[in-house]
Amino acid sequence: MSDPSPDSFPPNRAPQTGRLPAGGPTPGAGFPLTPGGGAPTPGGGLPAPGRFEVLRELGRGGHGVVLHARDRASGRELAVKVLLGRGHDLRTKRFAREAELATKLAHPGIVTLVDADLEASPPWLAFALVPGAVSLAERWSRLSRSARLDVLLQVARSVGYAHAQGVVHRDLKPANVLVDGRGRAFLIDFGVATGADVERLTLSGAWVGTPYYMSPEQLRGRKEVEVGPPADVWALGVLLYEALTELRPFPGESVVELAERVTTQTPKPVRKLDATIDPRLEAVCARALARDPAERFPDGRAFAEALELALRAPGSVDRRWLVATAGLGVAALGLSAALLLQGRELAPAPA
Which end of the chain is more exposed for a tag (fewer CB within 10 A), N or C? Predict the structure, then answer.
């Protein structure tokens, strides 16, 4: 869901420290598509009661609820997302847009839309259930740094695929990533996503997303047409910063303070916080968190490629790495030169 959630700020206050909560990033409005937790939803909110047997509620937000349900005809268990308050025109259009965008995305790292009925009362979307999965927000504290980076790489590849289809997620955060028992990551909740050929729904100046992970251009209230793939790259950069340091790059006492810091300041370099972090990971993080969208990686695929190279053979530098980090500017060029001067071998690019 894309409603205000526990990891969004209350109207006037925010956590007063940059350190992540003890359990990792706070769960938000992205619902785990997995059995477990919650009580069955009262009958008035059931989708197509003749078709689905509702087993339990998986999660709820101000605009909708996600149910673990069984399709009576096929016997298949699904995660059924139900819209609440259909009378809200913009909310209904966004629900329809999510369905439209989901039909464009067929990727192993993105939860699949199985069926939908936008004319039903209430309207519903049925997604594939991911057995045993929980949100990354819930699993965060139990993952090692290397495991977090592996999950982030998977997410970046999925985001890159979406970008190639013309879809920008705009609300990337741990609560919108599921991780199953095998460590596989699945991206969910395209409720505030935008597509190149989909009607623009956001009013000029309106915030869409979760403040901690919103890019400077989102916090400035830029029009949707100006919020492209680099906004998702920013969110990936925030996740990378958190995975490496267990700190938020921009702490704030309030939404206003957070917005001021994000739009005017540069986060402390990760190696200033932990000197054991590989310089190449620091460089990837720095580029992803560039305030100017043009200075970031252009899309999720480019971010994923750079991150994969940084994770491969720590400390080494190859030609593909130098190409991947092209455009980082003076700081990155200095970093690359420093690595080479340290006597690290320039390995040939893999075939």
Answer: C
How much of the chain, in percent, has pLDDT values that exceed 90? Answer: 48
Distance CA 99, CA 119 (A): 12
Res. 17 pLDDT band, cuts 50 70 90? very low
Q: Which residues contact 226 (CB under 8 A, 6 or more apart)?
A: 217
| Active-site annotation, residues | 171
Q: Is the pLDDT score of 281 beyond 60?
A: yes
d(CA 160, CA 265): 27
Q: What is the mean pLDDT of residues 315-338?
A: 53
Residue of 48, 74, 68, 44 lying closest to 56 (CA atoms): 68
Q: Is pLDDT above 70 for 58?
A: yes
Q: Look-up: residue for tokens 């990354």?
A: 136
Cα separation of 286 and 306, whole Å? Answer: 12
Rounded Cα distance between 314 and 61, Å, is 42
For residues 336-347, average pLDDT: 41
Q: What's the pTM value of the predicted model, to 2 decimals? A: 0.77
Transcribe 127-168 into DSSP letters.
EE--TT-EEHHHHGGGS-HHHHHHHHHHHHHHHHHHHHTTEE
Closest CA to 110 of 189, 172, 26: 189
| Confidence category of residue 32, pLDDT binned at 50, 70, 90 | very low
In angstroms, the CA 267 to CA 345 distance is: 30
Spell out a b/e string for 46-79, using b for 16 or more CB atoms within 10 Å of the CB, else e. bbbeebbebeebbbbbebbbbbbbbbeeeeebbb
Give residue 92's Cα distance to chain centre.
Answer: 23
Closest by CA to 285, choosing from 139, 140, 109, 148, is: 148
What torsion do the CA atoms of 197, 203, 204, 205 make, to the nearest 10 degrees?
-130
CA-wise closest residue to 25 among 10, 39, 15? 15
For the chain, percent of residues with pLDDT exceeding 70: 67
